[in-house]
C-alpha cells in the first residue's frame, strides 16, 4: 500500500497590523440608547382555509370567541369552527426614544397548526414589554414570505409561509420614560471588549475636546463626564463623540463551521513554523447476503450465506509545497489551495495545527 504525505512548511514573523479607522458608533453602544422587546398574542383572519384546526389548537377558538364577544357578537361553538383564522405571536422592537404615535415594524408567527398566513390580516393586538405594560398596538395585512400548495396526495412548500411581517404595522401608545437631556455622564460599552480599543477611544475623545472627559473603566466600558463642559446639550456631545474615528484592536480568530465546511480567518492569524502530513486512505466494508436454495426435489433447507466485500482505496496524494518567510494570510490560503486541499481537509489541518500550539489565534468551532 502506498502512502502519500503532504508536508507544509509555514513560517510567519510577527508583524504589527493596524485595522482601518472606524467610527465609535460602529463598535460600541451608548448606555441608555437602546431598544425594548415587545410581544403580544393575537389572531389572524382572512386565511384561505389554511388556518388552525380547532381540535388541535383550542386556544384559537377561545381567543376568537372572546374577540367576538367584545364586539357584541354571540356566536356558538359550531359557528367558530372555521379554517380561516389562526392564533399568532406578534413580536417587535421598540426603538430608543420612540414617541407616542410613531410606527414600528412587527413580526407575526403561528403557534398552532396553521399551514400558511398568506392573505391574512392581523386583528388589533396589544404589545407588552417585560414590565407588563402595553407600549404599542399592532394591526394590518401580513406579508408572508413563502408558498404552500397542497392536494389530496402531495404538498409542496417553499419558504416559510407560517411567518410574516407587517411593515409599520404597530403604533406606539406609550413612551419609555428617560430624560436624556438631564444626564451628567454616559457609558460607552464596547461590543468586543478589548483594553487597547478602550484606551484608544479614551484618547480620541480627550484629544477632540482637549479636556479629560473620558476614562476607560475596563476593557468593555469607557465613561464620559459632561461636567467639565459646563452647560451643554448631551445629545450634541454624544453626536460628536460617536463619529470620532478609532482603530479597533481585536484578537486573532479562526471560525470553523463544520456543517457548511466554511472557514473564516482574520488578518491577524499567525502560524509558527510547522510540518503537517495528511493521508487520503479510504477503507470501505459492505455486506451483501446471498440466499442458497436447494432444488425442488432435493431434501435440504434454504439458508442465507453472508458475503463481505472489503476495499482499501489510496487516493492520489497531494504534493509538497513551502510558504516562504514573511508570508501573509493570503499566502497561507494560496499555499493550501495550491496543494489541492479541500475545505473539510483544511479544517482538520487547522485543528491539528492549533492542537500542536502552532496556530496563534482563537479557534472557534461551530
TrEMBL record:
Any Pfam family matching the protein: FlgI
Keyword Oxidoreductase: no
Superkingdom classification of source: Bacteria
Subcellular location: Bacterial flagellum basal body
Primary site of residence: other
Keyword Signal attributed: yes
Alphabetized UniProt keyword annotations: Bacterial flagellum, Cell projection, Cilium, Flagellum, Periplasm, Signal
Signal sequence, renumbered to the chain: 1-19
Family listed: Belongs to the FlgI family.
Biological function: Assembles around the rod to form the L-ring and probably protects the motor/basal body from shearing forces during rotation.
PANTHER family the UniProt entry points to: FLAGELLAR P-RING PERIPLASMIC PROTEIN FLGI (PTHR30381), FLAGELLAR P-RING PROTEIN (PTHR30381:SF0)
This protein's name: Flagellar P-ring protein
Name of the coding gene: flgI
Amino acid at each position: 500500500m502506498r502512502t502519500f504525505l503532504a508536508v507544509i512548511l509555514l513560517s510567519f514573523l510577527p508583524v504589527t497590523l493596524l485595522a482601518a479607522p472606524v467610527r465609535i458608533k460602529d463598535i460600541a453602544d451608548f448606555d441608555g440608547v437602546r431598544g425594548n422587546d415587545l410581544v403580544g398574542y393575537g389572531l389572524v383572519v382572512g386565511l384561505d382555509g389554511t388556518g388552525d384546526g380547532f381540535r388541535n389548537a383550542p386556544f384559537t377558538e377561545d381567543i376568537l370567541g372572546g374577540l367576538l364577544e367584545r364586539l357584541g357578537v354571540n356566536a356558538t361553538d359550531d359557528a367558530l369552527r372555521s379554517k380561516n383564522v389562526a392564533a399568532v405571536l406578534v413580536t417587535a422592537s421598540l426603538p430608543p426614544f420612540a414617541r407616542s404615535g410613531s410606527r414600528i415594524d412587527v413580526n407575526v408567527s403561528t403557534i398552532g397548526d396553521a399551514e400558511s398566513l398568506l392573505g391574512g390580516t392581523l386583528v388589533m393586538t396589544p404589545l407588552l414589554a417585560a414590565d407588563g405594560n402595553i407600549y404599542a398596538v399592532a394591526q394590518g395585512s401580513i406579508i408572508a414570505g413563502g408558498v404552500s400548495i397542497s392536494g389530496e396526495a402531495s404538498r409542496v412548500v417553499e419558504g416559510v409561509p407560517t411567518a410574516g411581517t407587517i411593515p409599520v404595522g404597530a403604533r406606539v401608545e406609550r413612551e419609555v420614560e428617560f430624560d436624556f437631556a438631564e444626564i451628567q455622564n454616559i457609558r460607552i460599552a464596547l461590543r468586543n471588549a478589548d483594553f487597547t480599543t478602550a484606551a484608544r477611544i479614551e484618547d480620541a475623545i480627550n484629544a477632540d475636546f482637549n479636556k479629560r472627559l473620558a476614562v476607560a473603566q475596563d476593557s468593555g466600558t469607557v465613561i464620559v463626564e459632561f461636567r467639565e463642559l459646563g452647560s451643554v446639550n448631551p445629545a450634541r456631545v454624544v453626536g460628536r463623540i460617536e463619529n470620532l474615528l478609532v482603530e479597533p484592536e481585536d484578537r486573532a480568530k479562526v471560525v470553523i463551521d463544520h456543517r457548511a465546511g466554511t472557514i473564516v480567518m482574520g488578518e491577524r492569524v499567525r502560524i509558527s513554523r510547522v510540518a503537517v502530513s495528511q493521508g487520503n486512505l479510504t477503507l470501505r466494508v459492505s455486506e451483501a447476503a446471498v440466499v442458497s436454495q436447494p432444488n425442488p426435489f432435493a431434501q435440504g433447507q434454504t439458508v442465507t450465506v453472508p458475503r463481505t466485500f472489503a476495499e482499501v482505496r489510496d487516493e492520489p496524494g497531494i504534493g509538497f509545497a513551502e510558504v516562504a518567510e514573511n508570508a501573509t494570510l493570503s499566502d497561507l490560503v494560496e499555499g493550501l489551495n495550491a496543494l489541492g486541499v479541500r475545505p473539510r481537509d483544511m479544517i482538520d489541518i487547522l485543528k491539528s495545527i492549533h492542537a500542536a500550539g502552532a496556530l496563534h489565534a482563537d479557534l472557534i468551532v461551530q
